[in-house]
Structures are given as C-alpha cells and as structure tokens.
Amino acid sequence: VQLVESGGGLVQPGGSLRLSCAASGFPIISYYMRWYRQAPGKERELVAQISSGGSTYYAASAKGRFTISRDNAKNMVYLQMNSLTSEDTAAYYCNTYMRQDYWGQGIQVTVSS
C-alpha cells in the first residue's frame, strides 16, 4: 500500500489548490479514503472523507469550501480547496485504513500573502 500526495504549495488568502493522492497496492473503490491535516503545534485532524459508496464527510472547518472526490479508474483521490485562509496552513495527509492506518508522506499547504 502506498499513498503519494501532490499539489501543495504556497497560495494567497482566498485562493484555491487541488491536492492529489495517488494510491497503489489496493483498489480505492473498496475503501474509505480520507484527508487529514496537521498544523504546527496542533494535533492531526480529519478534514474530509469519502466512503467506498461515494458518501462524503467534511469537518466543520472544511464544509462549503473543500470537496473530496476520487477517480476509481486512476486510483486517485483529490481534495479541492477553495477560499483558503491562513487557518488552512498545514501539512495535508492522505489516509486509508485496512486493518491498520496507512499514510502518505504529507504535503505542505501554506496560505499567506
């Protein structure tokens, strides 16, 4: 199982970014896929989740601004982030669980002018 995030970087407040998670070693269609984030000095928190059936969940901080989606054919998961603020600055991690948690290496998102 391998998860590799991409698409992070520096963005101005109010801007957008799309994070991608390339999964390998398993079919994402069969598993819940999640995006977490961790800001400096804070605990890692769940941002968004998409179930194997396509149902989605968003943390209150992400609702209305972020969209999680997936492309089963490409085995990819995405997180579209709009209206970014400095509070969204964090390392973002792709995650899935199958008898244990699997994590990507993380990708930094910095929202700053």
Relevant terms:
mainly beta, globular, 11 strands, single chain, 52% strand, 4-stranded antiparallel beta sheet, 7-stranded mixed beta sheet, 113 residues
| DSSP strand count | 11
Order of helices and strands: EEEEEEEEEEE
* pLDDT averaged residue by residue: 97
| Structural class determined from secondary elements | mainly beta
Main pleated sheet: 7 strands, mixed
Give helix % range: under 10%
Distance between the termini: 37 Å
Radius of gyration: 13 Å
Q: Give the amount of beta strand, in percent.
A: over 45%
* Shape descriptor: globular
Number of helices, counting only DSSP H or I runs of 4 residues or more: 0
Spans where pLDDT lies below 50 across 5 or more residues: none
Describe this structure in words.
- There is one protein chain.
- It contains no helices and 11 strands.
- The mean pLDDT is 97.
- 0% of the residues lie in helices and 52% in strands.
- Strands 2, 4, 5, 6, 9, 10 and 11 form a 7-stranded mixed β-sheet that branches. Strands 1-3-8-7 form a 4-stranded antiparallel β-sheet, with no helix packed on it.
- It has 113 residues and is mainly beta.
- The chain is globular, with a radius of gyration of 13 Å.
- It has strands at 2-6, 9-11, 17-24, 33-38, 45-50, 56-58, 66-71, 76-81, 90-97, 101-103, 107-111.
- A hairpin with a 5-residue loop joins strand 5 (45-50) and strand 6.
